[in-house]
Amino acid sequence: MGALPVYRWRLAPDGYATRRQLRALGLRPGGQDVAAQIERPRRRRAPLVAYLYRLDLAKPVRPMTPGRWAALAKANAARRIRPQCRTDAGYVIPTSLGTCVPCAFPSTSPRSV
User: Fold this and answer.
1) Contact 57, 27 (CB under 8 A)
2) What mean pLDDT comes out for the span 12-40?
3) Confidence (pLDDT) at 108
């Protein structure tokens, strides 16, 4: 097994793309292995590494089916449900709190104008 080619930041040849770049083009890696990597040097820390995939082997992104849309809508709705009172918060509950903001900080009251 050979080593991956390593390119410096912004010096990768044409025909390679990161996952984000593939997604922006409407593509996905499609099961191919990482073809190369780019490194962005940093002072006193390890370099940032991004993996590159070949554009000619990339496949189109699979379309969303009605079942996937329904599952995504159900998952997003579950993130809005308050754990204690089981009502819709109207926003996504912060995972750092684990509950809605009024339940996490009951002593604070809204300011009266």
Assistant:
1) no
2) 95
3) 63
Q: Where are the alpha helices (DSSP H) in the chain?
A: 19-24, 66-78, 101-104
d(CA 82, CA 79): 8
Task: Enter the DSSP assignment of 100.
Answer: -
Write out pLDDT tens, residues 62-84. 999 999 999 999 999 999 988 87
Q: How many CB atoms lie within 10 A of CB 52?
A: 23
The mean predicted confidence, pLDDT, of the chain is 89
Q: How far apart are CA 20 and CA 23, in angstroms?
A: 5
Return the H-helix or E-strand segment holding 39: strand 36-42
